[in-house]
Specification:
Length: 612
């Protein structure tokens, strides 16, 4: 009977047991991450309801995490990022730097240094969210596994966020609470004059830790991070399309070689030939330069064709797609297999006036896995041809009842890029960042306005914004917040922290080290914000007991609360890349443990030198 146990003891051990079981489940990939996290939270809630023991402050706290401002902000940021991705805004902003990347190390240097810098002045979560689609495309182009890029991306954003008060919401929470402690101390007649935290106060420890951390990430990821590849790679698709693309007359590709344009690096795709505007046909050599109105004949699988259409400066030949009486934001890519009863059998695509008859533009044609000769408009349609079409989203509903096509299906990630709206999407993102950075609006309000702005300006549609939300990430974060509240309420986190503090035995440096380690343990078990709020009063009390300035203890809490490198759910950006990168828990431990030690030693060393 549970009532026979000490009500002060068993809730703590139950919470610790549930948390350890969750960690074990994540380590062994026993089930989906969101299911594991939600199950762990459900166990705590059910036990509380059955026994009446307050494992959580009150029943509503179990699900309060799902209404957390940070979680809602992340959901809104998915919509903002969808607008950037569908317009090519992120590539426009980063392409000049990342397009010249040649290998893993070069890519990481070009990516991680700007991300760490920006994360010091922006909230690091939207920085990672905006970079996710760019990193995915970059990995495909350079044939680098996403697992070699995504976790370093998250870690670089965390490191950069340590350096200022603006870099992470945790630092802002600590600053507000610490300033309140100072006011309370003065009101109680405190004799010691205490300084408030300034914008760059965390930099004394954050900058050295960031520099050393980035050196470790760039130097060690090749050996410490395994390649996690999807079960089916792009090259496994046997269906080979012949596709034509035209170089925009005054676009960004004019004057570049095929290599510089990135057209030789797309997996599963090759350029067969180049048809010049004067009628000449030239071989597709890597050093062949592109000119306005060149027609490129390419052969590749459907995923590669989708990636090809993301490249700025390439348009459909003859501008057929733009002649459709449908705005770009209402179009998508559709695969359709030609039936023997199709009215256009034996006619070329041009003769059959495909666009006029079906209100759809033929983007590519596949026939038996071989390349089709001649221009796309001159291809004669045969039964069994697979056509890749740019059409309205209602095309499938109209044609499924007809006799012209069968096996009609939408293409994954087949939304049409709206490159002309890329500057607008970047402008919305910039306004959001500036409004939040200058405290004109809260991060939540700024993200909300930006998400609405993306939809109203048709950078993305409502359904596209809704589909962009990764619900599994939100479920894991919301559940982790609830579990964190249980760790705090049951006394489990406090017991762990106090046990570490007892080891210090009144020594200032020992106390600083204990505070740091205790905060790191808590932030890995719960969340960074919960860990900071739990450890701040302990740090304040510990500083007064050993008779030292509380500033180094408070900075240690700020740095350690963000220094979550060992688990996928201790920090939001770690959770965001967990599923996308195909990581396992051991990847975080293997790659993150040395980084945790480096950051800890650098931070404690600098704080000891400056304050103790």
């Amino acid at each position: 009977m549970l009532s026979l146990f000490d009500p002060q003891i068993w809730p703590m051990w139950l919470t610790i047991g549930v948390t350890l079981a969750l960690l074990l489940g994540l380590a062994t990939r026993a089930a989906a991450t969101d299911l594991l996290a939600l199950t762990a939270l459900a166990v705590l809630v059910v036990v509380q309801d059955l026994t009446g023991t307050p494992l959580l402050p009150d029943p509503t706290q179990a699900v309060a995490g799902f209404g957390n401002k940070g979680l809602i902000t992340i959901a809104l940021l998915f919509a903002v990022v969808a607008g950037l991705e569908l317009t090519g805004g992120t590539e426009l902003a980063t392409g000049w730097l990342l397009s010249k990347a040649k290998n893993l190390r070069d890519t990481q240097v070009r990516m991680l240094l700007p991300v760490a810098f920006l994360s010091g002045f922006l909230n690091n979560t939207p920085v990672v969210a905006a970079m996710l689609p760019v990193v995915g495309d970059l990995g495909k182009r350079l044939k680098i596994s996403p697992s070699r890029l995504l976790l370093p991306l998250s870690y670089a954003a965390i490191l950069g966020g340590m350096c200022t008060l603006m870099g992470t919401s945790t630092n802002l929470l600590v600053r507000d609470e610490y300033n309140q402690y100072i006011l309370d101390s003065k009101a109680a007649g405190g004799e010691i004059e205490l300084d408030e935290l300034s914008f760059f106060t965390p930099a004394i420890a954050g900058i050295p830790a960031t520099i050393l951390g980035l050196l470790y990430i760039i130097g060690a990821s090749k050996w410490m991070l395994p390649e996690r590849k999807p079960a089916v790679s792009v090259g496994d698709d046997p269906q080979k399309y012949t596709v034509e693309m035209q170089v925009e007359l005054t676009g960004p590709l004019v004057g570049k070689t095929l290599q510089e344009a990135g057209l030789r690096a797309l997996p599963g795709l090759y350029v067969a030939e180049i048809q010049r505007a004067d009628g000449r046909i030239e071989p597709a050599k890597p050093d062949q330069r592109l000119y306005g109105d060149d027609i490129l004949i390419l052969v590749g699988d459907v995923d590669s064709v989708v990636d090809l259409r993301k490249i700025r400066g390439l348009i459909t030949p003859g501008d057929q797609a733009r002649k459709l009486e449908i705005p770009a934001w209402r179009r998508t890519l559709v695969e359709a297999v030609v039936s023997p009863r199709c009215s256009l059998i034996g006619k070329t695509i041009r003769e059959g006036r495909f666009r006029s008859n079906f209100n759809a533009a033929v983007v590519a044609v596949a026939r038996g896995g071989r390349r089709l000769e001649g221009k796309l408009g001159d291809v004669r349609i045969e039964p069994g041809d697979v056509l890749l079409l740019e059409a309205s989203k209602s095309f499938m509903h109209r044609q499924r009842g007809g006799s012209d096509f069968y096996l009609i299906s939408s293409v994954d990630r087949g939304e049409i890029r709206r490159h002309e709206r890329a500057p607008l999407a970047l402008g919305i993102m910039l306004v959001m960042v500036v409004a939040a950075a200058l405290n004109w609006l809260s991060i939540l309000s700024a993200a909300m306005l930006a998400a609405v702005g993306m939809v109203l300006t048709r950078c993305c549609t409502t359904s596209e914004a809704r589909r962009s939300i990764d619900w599994s990430v939100l479920i894991v974060i919301g559940s982790a917040i609830g579990i964190g509240r249980a760790m705090e309420q049951s006394g489990a986190a406090g017991q762990i922290a106090n046990g570490l503090l007892n080891i210090a035995q009144g020594n200032p440096l020992g106390t600083l080290i204990a505070i740091y380690i205790a905060t790191v343990v808590c932030t890995e078990l719960i969340t960074n914000n919960a860990a900071a709020m739990l450890m701040l009063p302990i740090a304040w009390t510990a500083a007064s007991k050993v008779g030292t300035d509380p500033m180094p203890m408070v900075i240690a809490v700020m740095i350690a609360a963000s220094a979550s490198f060992l688990t996928p759910f201790g920090y939001q950006t770690n959770t965001m890349v967990y599923g996308v990168g195909g990581y396992r828990l051991r990847d975080y431990i293997q790659f993150g443990l040395p980084l945790s030690i480096i950051v800890g030693v650098a931070s404690i060393g600098m704080l000891n030198w400056r304050y103790l």
